[in-house]
Each structure stands twice: as C-alpha cells, then as structure tokens.
TrEMBL record:
SUPFAM superfamilies hit by this protein: ABC transporter transmembrane region (SSF90123), P-loop containing nucleoside triphosphate hydrolases (SSF52540)
UniProt entry keywords in alphabetical sequence: ATP-binding, Cell membrane, Membrane, Nucleotide-binding, Transmembrane, Transmembrane helix, Transport
Organism of origin: Arcicella aurantiaca
Domain ABC transporter: 365-605
One family name in Pfam for this protein: ABC_tran
Keyword field contains Membrane: yes
ABC transmembrane type-1 domain span: 45-330
One annotated GO molecular function: ATP binding
Subcellular location: Cell membrane
Record flagged with keyword Thylakoid: no
Entry protein name: ATP-binding cassette subfamily B protein
Matches recorded under PANTHER family: ATP-BINDING CASSETTE SUB-FAMILY B MEMBER 10, MITOCHONDRIAL, ATP-DEPENDENT PERMEASE MDL1, MITOCHONDRIAL
PROSITE patterns registered for this protein in UniProt: ABC_TM1F, ABC_TRANSPORTER_1, ABC_TRANSPORTER_2
One cellular component term from this protein's GO annotations in UniProt: plasma membrane
C-alpha cells in the first residue's frame, strides 16, 4: 500500500488563486443538484429568496414600533391603533420567518439525501466502466476514496452555497440602510471582519492539505478497521492472534494523525480568537458612533435600534459569508477530486466502429507473440505466446504457481490488453470487436470467484443477470454444475441467502461454493468457457462428476481449463504447459508424454503420489 510519511506530505497546499479557480466547479455542481430534483431546487431557492427579506423587514418594523412608542409616550390622548398594526406585522414576520426557515431546512435535507444517492450511483457506474488495471493502482484508490467522501460531504456544500446567496441578498438590503445613514460604518465593518476571514482562509488551506496528504493513511486505517472487525477475516485474526498487532498498527497511525490535526486545531483556535477580538472592537466602535449621534439628536431612537441591529446582523452575516466562502472554496477543492475521478477514462474500450462478435466462431483464437506486464510491474507475466485455440477445442493450461495461466485468460477476456503482440479471433484483432459482446460470449469462473452475500439463486444468476427471474434456467445450470444437491438441502432453496453477513444467511463449504460458482458458467451458455481451477475445492467424486459433465456439456464449445490436477488435465484435447509466462510445450496428453518433457515429468510425479 502506498504510504506517505506524514512528515513528507505531497506538496499540495492550495493557494488562494487555486481556491478561487476551484470555485469554477460550482456551476457544474449546482447543475447536478438541479438535475437531482428540479422541483426541490426551485422550491428551496424561492423559500430562501423570501427568507432573505425577513431580517431587514423585521428590523425596520421594530424601528417603527419604537418610534411609535416614544411618540405615544408624549401623546395625549393616546392612539394605539397604529401600534397594534405594527406589533401584528412584527408577529406575522416572525411566524413567516420561522416557517420559511423550516421549509428551507426540510428541502435542504431532502435535496441533500437525493444528491448523495445520485452521486453514489454515479460513482458506482463510473467505477464499473474503468479498467481492472486502474483498480490495482494505489493512487487510483486514493482518488476513489476522496471522490467517495464527496457523496456525504457535498450535501453540506449544497446548503452552504444556497445559504450564501440568501445571506448576500439580506446583506445587500441591510447595507442600503447603513449606507443611507453613514457610509463610513461600512469601512469599520470591513476592518471588523477581514482579519478573521483571512485567518480562516489560511487555516482551511492547511487543513485541506493535511487531509489530502493523509488520504493513503486514512485508507490504511479503514483497512485495519475492516480486517480487525469483519466476518471475512475473523477466523484468521483469531487463530493467528492478530488482533493486538492490528490494533497496534491502527493506533500508531491514528495517533500520528491525531497529533498532526491537534497541532493545526490549536493554532487555528488561538489565531481565531485573536482575530475575532479585532472584529468585536470594530463592532463596538461603530456602536459608539451611532449612540453618540443619537444623543446628539442626529437620528431617532428607533433608528438607533435599527442601525445597531443592522450593524450587528451585518457583522454576523459578513462573517458567515466569509467563513462560508472558506468552506465553500474548500468544498470546491474537494469537488476537484470528484470531477477528476469522473475524468478518468477506461483504456480498454470498444472501438467506435466495433466489429460485431461473430454469431458463430469459425476458426478460433490465435495468439501471436503476445506479451503482458502488469501495471507497476517490470516482470513479464506472459511473453512470446504463440499458439492457437481452435473452435470447439478444449485446451488445458498447466504450469507452476505464477506461470501466467490466469493472466492469459484475463487477456482473452480483455480485462487487460497485451503490451506486445496480438490476439486474433477469426483473423481479426480481438480489440476490434465489440467489448461487451465479447465479454457476454466468454464465460469465466476464476479461482478467486466471488462469494456474493446474495441468495443462492442470485449467486447463480450473476452468470447472466438477465435470467435472474427465470428459475428453470437457474435450476438447469445448478443441475449441470452439481449445485442442485447443495441448494436442495438449504431451508429456503434458491431464495436462501448465502454467507453470514446478513440475517438468515447460511454459509457453504468451499466445495459447495465452487459448485454454485460453476453454475454461473453453465447459466451463461457462452461460446467460450474458461474454468480457472474449478475443482480445487471439490472432493474426488465430485471432481470426476464435474468433468464428465463438463466434457458432455461443452461438446462443440471452445473451452480453457486451468488445473493442477493431471487427472483432469488429461481429458483436454490439448495441453499447454506454461513456464515463466512462456509456452514450454503444447500437444495432446499422449504427445506430451511421448516427448518426455516437463509435462511428462509433472504427470508422472503426481501419478507416483497416488500409487
Ligand atoms: N494483479 C497483478 N498485479 C501484478 N502482478 C500480478 C498480478 N496478478 C498476477 N501477477 C503476477 O503475474 C504472474 C503470473 O500470475 P498468474 O496469476 O497468471 O499465475 P498463475 O499461473 O495463474 O498462478 P497460480 O497457479 O498460482 O494461479 C505472477 O508472477 C504474479 O505475481
């Protein structure tokens, strides 16, 4: 796992220009929000517009009330009619303001939830379109991780961006009143707010850079958390007594992170208090000026309350706006990660004018000098592969661990493309064919097949998800792979949840799982079947049965079989012996025995073991 030393963080301290540049993400972001739910977005905007008028209206009515009270104090006879009206208006404004605030927070949270769901779906869709190789790259995972964080975090960005607009309107209205009275107060207001804004900006940049630099470690922490407490790992963690080791690793790393974060938080709090004090000083200076002018009779007492109230609110609003600007621009920086993730393009794709996959394969596959290195690896996993796989032929791949058997199969399914040479199908480069058709027509069961925590039926249906509802098809496939006897014994049969993760789940044995996985290949009715050690976990009788059936069921079909058991391998039409990624021998069982090379040696070695 990629691991940056926390003291050696990647240089990523976004400066103010980068933060402003990141704000350019906001229109695209708001567009996505609008697309999530046009009605909620419009509703929320309207509510906010109305709410933005409230503070100034309420302050103004309060001013009128005070001036009216003072008038009535010296008035005889007294006339309360006007006063009642004003109090009624203030009351109505308070009620409407509360209702609007409720409406805003309701639409905010609904919109936020919908937006988080939509982003999750988009992330899953995009991740599914990417190459396997991209998933094996640690920096890709870091990007994915940061993008994933966007789904929840961005709902806050959403309400903040909208609140920003609302407060800007309120502020504009309050400013009009303030400017009419004394434009110099605005200057005082800026002095009161700008220092703490700049402080916040600085510390937010530092915080983002800390978070950014720690992405790999946070991923590592998540991993420890997961393997320390998960059903998948519990068995080994217990038997090997790993929990102290895992907790220790988790703690070391998390304390390191805590310390870095604490340092920053303390710095931020100290500076924040100091800068805020400057702001308070500015506020009181303005307050003093207004009081002085009232005493001198330049403004009424009602105006004093209006102006003092406006000033107090303005300061709070401005602080809010500037503070929010910080988190919005920080949020916009995170949006960079999300949009950057969306920009990652798969390299393995269908050509624009893709050749349709042949209805019936005529000749078969031909490997011509095929070589492949895994990304981030200097070693050739396959090299100089030259052989043919004829249509209808059953080819067995043998070779020691790491010889390149699984890799060869992955190349055939275009999970990777060769770095050298070409794989031809019926005379055309495999890359020319429609990719999804190619994958549809190839059925592969890998040795590390997934044990999905779904029902037994769904576990078979993943072989061809379009037939998920067609029970007879699932039953047929289960019968062919010997999974039927396993499923019949389950209390809920095809509806039985498998695995222990969810309620009512039943765990299967390794061999039973393998039979279920094998049924996926039969469900698919692919033209090319690839079984990568499909019988490793099967008992001897089941293995014999599986192969007898395999031979019958795949008559006329092209198949590749990977196995370390020579009793299985010898049933194939031809056998390809791989060594260090290269073809060492190829031929029928008899031919290879006669050759007396590696195959004969390994075959005899295993046969010897059984005598
Ligand atoms: N995802 C990967 N990234 C980098 N290297 C890999 C990856 N998968 C396999 N390799 C390397 O490629 C080589 C071939 O691996 P492959 O899985 O094809 O072997 P195999 O013949 O199927 O082995 P086994 O019999 O153990 O299943 C090995 O040296 C392995 O370390």
């Amino acid at each position: 796992m990629a691991r940056n030393s926390p003291n050696n963080l990647p240089e990523n301290k976004p400066n103010i220009r980068e933060r402003l540049k990141a704000l350019a993400n906001l229109p695209a972001f708001l567009k996505e929000v609008y697309q999530t739910s046009p009605s909620l977005t419009i509703g929320n905007t309207l509510l906010r517009l109305l709410r933005s008028l409230m503070p100034v209206s309420s302050l103004y009515v309060a001013k009128l009330i005070i001036d009216e009270v003072i008038l009535q104090v010296s008035n005889t006879p007294k006339d309360f009619h006007h006063l009642y009206l004003l109090i009624g208006a203030e009351f109505a404004l308070a009620i409407i303001g509360d209702l609007l605030a409720r409406g805003i927070s309701l639409t905010d949270s609904l919109l936020g939830d919908l937006f988080a769901n939509r982003t999750s779906v988009q992330l899953m869709k995009h991740a599914a379109s990417l190459d396997l190789a991209q998933f094996e790259d640690a920096t890709f995972y870091d990007k994915l991780e940061r993008a994933r964080q966007q789904t929840a975090g961005r709902t806050i960005l959403l309400s903040q961006t909208l609140a920003q607009g609302q407060d800007a309107i309120t502020m504009g209205l309050l400013l009009v009143g303030l400017i009419a009275f004394n434009p110099w107060l605005i200057l005082l207001l800026l002095v009161a707010v700008i220092p703490s804004f700049l402080g916040e900006l600085h510390f937010n940049a530092k915080s983002y850079s800390l978070q950014y630099g720690w992405t790999p470690q946070r991923r590592e922490l998540d991993y420890y958390r997961f393997i320390g407490a998960s059903d998948d790992t519990a068995k080994e963690v217990k038997l090997f007594g790993l929990s102290d080791f895992l907790i220790d690793r988790f703690q070391t790393l998390s304390i390191q992170y805590f310390k870095e974060n604490r340092k920053l938080s303390i710095e931020r709090a100290s500076w924040g208090s100091l800068l805020l004090a400057i702001g308070t000083l500015g506020y009181f200076a303005a307050y003093g000026i207004i009081i002085f002018q009232t005493v001198n009779g330049a403004v009424t007492i009602g105006s004093l309350t209006f102006l003092a109230g406006s000033f107090r609110q303005l300061r709070a609003l401005l602080e809010g706006i500037l503070g929010r600007f910080n988190s919005i621009s920080q949020g916009a920086l995170y949006l960079n990660d999300l949009f950057e993730f969306y920009k990652i393009e798969p390299k393995i794709t269908s050509p624009v004018l893709a050749r349709p996959f042949p209805k019936e394969i005529k000749e078969g596959f031909r490997f011509e000098n095929v070589g492949f290195k895994y990304p981030n690896s200097d070693k050739w996993a396959n090299r100089h592969l030259n052989f043919t796989l004829k249509v209808g032929e059953k080819l067995a791949l043998v070779g020691e661990n790491g010889a390149g058997k699984t890799t060869l199969v992955k190349l055939l399914g275009r999970l990777y493309d060769p770095d050298e040479g070409t794989i031809y199908l019926d005379g055309f480069d495999l890359k020319e064919y429609n990719l999804s058709e190619l994958r549809e027509r190839i059925g592969v069961i890998f040795q590390d097949f997934q044990r999905f925590q779904f029902t037994a039926g769904d576990n078979i249906a993943v072989g061809d998800i379009s037939r998920r509802e067609v029970l007879p098809e699932l039953q047929r496939a289960a019968h062919q792979s010997l999974a039927d006897t396993v499923i019949e014994k389950l209390p809920l049969n095809y509806e039985q949840p498998l695995g222990k993760r969810f309620a009512k789940g039943v765990e299967l044995s390794g061999g039973e799982w393998q039979k279920v996985a094998l049924a996926r290949a039969y469900l698919r009715e692919a033209d090319v079947l690839i079984l990568d050690e499909p019988t490793a976990a099967l008992d001897a009788r089941a293995e014999y049965e599986v192969f007898k059936r395999f031979a019958e069921l795949t008559k006329g079909k092209t198949a590749i079989l990977i196995s370390h058991r020579f009793s299985t391998v010898r049933m194939a039409d031809r056998i390809l012996v791989l060594d260090k990624g290269q073809v060492l021998e190829i031929g029928t069982h008899q031919e290879l025995l006669a050759q007396n090379g590696r195959y004969a040696e390994l075959f005899n070695l295993q046969a010897e073991g059984y005598r």
